[in-house]
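Q: Give me a protein?
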Amino acid sequence: MVFNEKNEQNNILVRPLTLKDIGSNYIEWFNDAEVTKYLDAKNLSVEQCKNYLKNGILQRSYYIFAICDRIKNIHIGNIKVGPIRRFDGVSDLVTVIGNKNYWGRNIASMSIKLIKERVFLESGIRKFVASIDSLNTASINAYKKAGFEVEAKLSNFFIHKNNNNEISYSDKIYVSSNNINYNLNKFNKWEPIHIEDIK
């Protein structure tokens, strides 16, 4: 599963993440406080990331795709389908643009839209969901631009501390996108990436 977004300003390619993609530059993303501000994944090792990539495929529970600059052949971020709930026909969709040179260029929204449309077409999935800290307005806007809608809010879900240990709160925002042509039997068999695809 490889696909492109081509226009006058951007040439984005989304393809399966491979083991070769996971090196020092990749690890730097998850050691960068700005990149990981709203992520659970922080301070990871190469071995942890490679094992995580393989486990998702083997367990059929999530699949990770690389977001690339097609012209420069640069890996700039990831988009993950999962965790997958096959019985319910639902999956999270998690996005990170690790290369900060590409922030503010609508790369995330284009990648989300690409994955959403292709997976809706090919997998039979019923629904994509993402949960986002309300302070992460860039992420919320990216999903909205890709056709997601705000479906729910959990008030005062996250706690934040400033340098003076003063506490503030933010909400957890759920955005979603529904596939009217879903097919759960098809989705139960769907395997977009295999182990041989990541070597």
